[in-house]
């Protein structure tokens, strides 16, 4: 009994680690920062990772069983990494919970805006939400439309991937700027 239990846990960890690595790799594509002017700062990287976590969650939304479990594990891993990053940046024990709460609100607010725009097929609303969230310091961000096109492409690509493939630890995101 214990072997089966612990064996499954190790197998799940291998799968979720592989998925998380693919999500992080997609969020770190150099074109986002070099060509599309996403801020290459801790907050900018949080925004890009949040966007890719959203795309992953969007793909598994509404699924049950193992898919729901994997989505929850990856969400937990994401927030654990965010907390670890805050500590690496020198935020003390007293400041971490306050900042985590703020970052959690930011994440879920963004995912609601992105999901709404995608569900309505409203590229303009998606572009505006991306610009507002990723480049709040700029009045205009011309590259936001390119990022919106990428998000739409990624959403479509993820929807085409079989759940069984994803749950085996394999997920593909588009190459940013390739089109």
Give the strand tally. 0
Cα gyration radius (Å): 17 Å
Q: What composes the largest sheet?
A: none
In percent, how much strand structure appears in the residues? Answer: under 5%
- N-to-C series of helices and strands: HHHHHHHH
Question: Can you describe what's shown?
Answer:
Residues 36-173 form the Ubiquinol-cytochrome c chaperone domain. Belongs to the CBP3 family. Belongs to the UPF0174 family. InterPro entries: Ubiq_cyt_c_chap, Ubiqinol_cyt_c_chaperone_CPB3, Ubq_cyt-c_CBP3-rel. The model is unreliable at 1-7 (pLDDT under 50). The chain has one domain (1-168). Helices cover 74% and strands 0% of the residues. It contains 8 helices and no strands. With 179 residues, the chain is mainly α. The protein starts with a helix and ends in a 12-residue tail after the last helix. The chain has helices at residues 2-27, 30-34, 42-60, 66-88, 96-120, 123-134, 144-160, 163-167.
Offer a concise description of the structure.
Belongs to the CBP3 family. Belongs to the UPF0174 family. The protein has about 180 residues and is mainly alpha-helical.
């Amino acid at each position: 009994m214990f072997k089966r239990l612990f064996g499954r846990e190790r197998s799940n960890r291998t799968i979720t680690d592989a998925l998380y690595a693919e999500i992080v790799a997609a969020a770190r594509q150099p074109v986002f920062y070099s060509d599309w002017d996403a801020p290459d700062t801790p907050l900018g990287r949080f925004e890009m990772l949040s966007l890719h976590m959203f795309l992953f969650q969007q793909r598994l939304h509404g699924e049950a069983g193992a898919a729901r479990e994997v989505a929850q594990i990856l969400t937990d891993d994401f927030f654990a990494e965010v907390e670890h990053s805050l500590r690496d940046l020198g935020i003390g024990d007293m400041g971490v919970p306050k900042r985590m709460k703020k970052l959690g609100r930011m994440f879920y607010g963004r995912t609601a805006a992105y999901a709404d725009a995608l569900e309505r097929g409203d590229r303009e609303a998606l572009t505006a939400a991306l610009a507002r969230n990723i480049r709040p310091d700029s009045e205009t961000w011309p590259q936001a439309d390119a990022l919106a096109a990428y998000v739409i492409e990624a959403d479509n690509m993820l929807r085409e991937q079989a759940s069984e493939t994803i749950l085996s630890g394999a997920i593909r995101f588009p190459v940013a700027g390739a089109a």
